[in-house]
UniProtKB/TrEMBL annotation:
SUPFAM superfamilies: NAD(P)-binding Rossmann-fold domains (SSF51735), S-adenosyl-L-methionine-dependent methyltransferases (SSF53335)
Positions of region (Disordered): 357-427
Source organism (scientific name): Streptomyces harbinensis
Thiazolinyl imine reductase-like C-terminal domain segment(s): 164-261
Compositionally biased residues, Low complexity: 389-407
PANTHER family: BILIVERDIN REDUCTASE A (PTHR43377)
Domain Methyltransferase positions: 451-547
Domain Gfo/Idh/MocA-like oxidoreductase N-terminal: 15-130
Protein name: Thiazolinyl imide reductase
Coiled-coil residues: none
UniProt feature, compositional bias: Pro residues: 378-388
Amino acid sequence: MTVPPSPPSPGRPLRTVVAGTNFGRFYIDAVNAHPGFELAGILARGGAHSRALAGKLGVPCWTRLADLPGDIDAAVVAVPSAVMGGNGTELGRELLERGVHVLQEHPLHPDELAGSLRLARARGRQFRVNTHYPHVRSVRRFLRAATALRARQPVLFVDAAAPVHVLAPLVDILGRALGGLRPWRLDDPAPVSREVGAATGDRTPVQLLHGAIAGAPVTLRVQNQLHPGDRDNHALFWHRVAIGTEGGVLTLADTHGPVLWHPRLHSPRDDGHRLVFEAGPGAEDLLLPAAEVVGDPAGTPPRFADIFSSWWPEAVGEALGSFAEGIARGDDPLRSAGHDLAVFGLWRDLMARLGPPELIRPPAPRPLTVRDLDPEPAGAPDPAPDGGPRPAEAAAARRPPAAAGAGDEPGAGYTGPAEFFDLGAGEHTSRTGPAVVAALAGIDPHSGPLLDIGAGTGLVTRQIARAYPDCHLVAAEPAAGMRAVLTARLAEDPDLARRVTVRPDAAHELALPDRICAAVLCGVLGHIDAPGRRELLRALAERLAPGAPLIVEMMGLTAPVSMPPTRLRRAALGRRTYEWWMSGEPSGEERMRLDTTWRVFEDGKQVHEVRDHYHWYTVGLERIARESGLVLERPPAPHAAAVPHLGVLRGAERRPVTR
């Protein structure tokens, strides 16, 4: 019999193994970012991908459970469970037998779950199942709003939809939104008539069920289809939930947002029983907006790349945090799992009524953009009455084409739009700045100045300087418009004006001091070709004080792609609204041309437009680390998930520094 490991000492991270490297990659990122966990190794079949990933992370790749050392505290099992035809449940139970706390990925048959919970109780360990999606930030926002809504008014109806392979998480979301699942009742799927089947060619990808959950009438729409080898890429939609009350409808439009509130349309009637159409006494509700975004109305929807690099690891981190709290408290796993047992009990009943999913193998889908549906940007004025181009379009047509290669000049792409830069970058640098400040911890300000290369308008420069009051900085920015804002920003603070020197040099033109305490290059290295990058990085590495960091931020593009026009930001100042648009096309084997446009609207009409472009070399952080000869680290927790394309480079032998 295996002797269970002794519990970890207070404050020590839980040494954790992750089983599985498909979805398990998100768990690996989250474990690395969470201060309560330490990645001890990977448990996999030993394929080339798993071994390469373990090598990159500097941890062992075990292929047999018997090979695990005896000091493992916790495990994440991110392989299919028995109900999905895998050995995840068996693996989880073997880990529990060894005295390891287990967090297992959904779904589980309720009998599997109950058996694992009983074993966890017998071994004095925690067992949790993670349905993942309730922890995604947009779903968390929806659940907070649903709780507040239920406290004010009873639920009149629920309309929900999901593809079959993530149906268990939908049940979990509904249970949390409604304050429970019991009692539930389900009808069989509504039949499709012969006439409708003939009209659609028997193509019915979505099945409709009616039921009741926690006393609320529920309509469920399920895409009961599966591609056996590629489930996610062939889901027609993701989680969608609408909760209706007397006062309006709260909607989770998609797993990844937005969350919308539609107030109830209600117009009073006058003495003649006619509807009142003008707001006034007794008709104040007519001033309500027809719809509002719950949360940050100005927030930019996530890109799919953001979901994979930030949102999902963050959601896994939420599950890990709850798991760690249960371990620390010594919860009774059976007593704390009542909600999970109900979730998988209802899921089992749903799956039984739906029947086996239809197996499909369609070709790869072709995603569309909003520009495919409506070529006019949001807020753009209507076309001219004669159907001709608007004045702004006519002016753009008369504009001469940009000179070839102009995007390669130092500062190109930034001088024209400099007046708008803070409107677009402020939200991003509110995450980047704290991450850079944290990554600089331990620098020795007496070993030399800190270089901020490509300082822009100083949004991050100011945060660094204020966090390290003993440090002298050199802020280099070649774009005159950006540099004007930078100098004005620093001049407002006498202390910063004393300690920060502004230079007009591009990265490859900057005269480097003999010794520096750190260097920061955010959004810079993609402007420089490979030979120039390598020369700059090696020169900086040679000048770094022992243990000092070189902090770099890239864009997340690792290969040239066609990027349709995409609105990145929208902001308002007074009566004017500003929109930042970007598009891109490959312009070489490792290079893209990125076109930026700022449009200014006043009272709904476009009054100004500024266009520019630059070239960007599509390299990732790993490539940058190889070119520098330094070792790549992630930013310290909890910043790694918020800034996935920020890397910290240090010498291979990191030596502590004193302050």
